[in-house]
Amino acid sequence: MAARDCPPHFGTRNYGPDLTSIYSLPPIHPIKTKSARLNRWLEPSYPLFINHWRRLLGGPLAQADLVICESGSPVLLGPRLAELAPQVVRFYRVLDDICLLNAPDVLLRAERNHHPFTRTSTASPHIGARFAHHPNVTLEPIGIPHAE
């Protein structure tokens, strides 16, 4: 964020007709603790995370022609993205193997449910193999080739 000319601002900002940013802190963020009992107790609260973003994303998604959902907690938004923007291409960009990041079970289940996304994209063949069941998986390297 230091590379930007200003820090992020809470709320929705339109930078032009094709770029909108949304910066907000949801009331809860999915986590995994060392206690199985606490994890089960926390899981019913995760719809608060989804509903927080659903409210903020409705307007911008109505105008979208592409939605990119990064790996991690945003994968929980997949069904809502499909509901709010059924007309657009919805990428799930898998940058991290969340199985190795001690992700809560709710995220692992959401990631296995590929139906909300029209394409799954990753830079890693190893991660891509985990999504062999998805009808449209692409391997796309990170970065921009020097020739371009």
Which labels suit this protein?
single chain, 148 residues, alpha/beta, four-stranded parallel beta sheet, 30% helix, 20% strand, globular
Explain what you see.
The protein has 148 residues and is of the alpha/beta class. It has 5 helices and 6 strands. The strands form 2 sheets. Strands 3-4-5-6 form a 4-stranded parallel β-sheet. A two-stranded antiparallel sheet has the order 1-2. The radius of gyration is 16 Å and the shape is globular. The two termini are 25 Å apart.
Write the layout of secondary structure elements.
Elements: E1 11-16, E2 19-23, H1 36-42, H2 47-63, E3 66-70, H3 78-84, E4 89-94, H4 105-112, E5 119-122, H5 125-130, E6 137-139
Parallel strand pairs: 3-4, 4-5, 5-6
Antiparallel strand pairs: 1-2
Tell me briefly what this model is:
By secondary structure, the chain is α/β, with parallel strands linked by helices. It has five helices and six strands; from the N terminus they run ββααβαβαβαβ.
The parts where pLDDT drops under 50 for at least 5 residues are: none
Which band does the percent of strand residues land in? Answer: 15-25%
> What series of H and E elements makes up the topology?
EEHHEHEHEHE
Average predicted confidence as pLDDT:
86
| Rg calc | 16 Å
N-to-C span: 25 Å
Largest sheet: 4 strands, parallel
How large is the count of helical segments?
A: 5
Q: Structural class of the helix and strand makeup?
A: alpha/beta
Fraction of helical residues: 25-40%
Oligomer: single chain
Q: Which strands sit side by side, in order, in the main sheet?
A: 3-4-5-6
Shape: globular
